[in-house]
Amino acid sequence: MEILESIDILEDTIEKGLNIPLAGKCMLDKDELLDLIQDIRLKLPDDLKQAKWVKDERQRILVDAQKEANEIIKSTEDKIISMINENEITKRAKEKADELINAANKRAKEIRQSTRQYADDVLADMEKIMEKTIQTLRDNRISLHDKEQKKQDDAQPDLLDE
After folding, report:
1. In 10 A of CB 69, how many CB atoms?
2. pTM, full prediction
């Protein structure tokens, strides 16, 4: 996912910022950080489109699995009808039909479960990425506000020193 690469670059840029001794702060290139944030914003819709594609693909797989199950059931029913006059053959056909129906239903259920899990995993990953991005943006805003407040505090004369 390209957005993860952009977030890694953002982290690297922050890590490489010029440290201010004894302040626990660092100086960063505002334009560079804003460019990286803009890049993340531009890439985010692509990742969301990918998550939608996964959801749509999951739905398509479920529909295909249901069609396959219906075809297996129809095929089995046709076999049963053609053998209905012969008792032993009918009995075997019924057992085989039940096995096929159970197998088809089991396979359809497995496909539904695995596609739901896959879609959930992708969406959970996207959620984590978005939460991390939002938290990084919040932290950066707080840091910017703290720096601005410190500048204002330093610029005001101390009334107690007079």
Report:
1. 20
2. 0.34
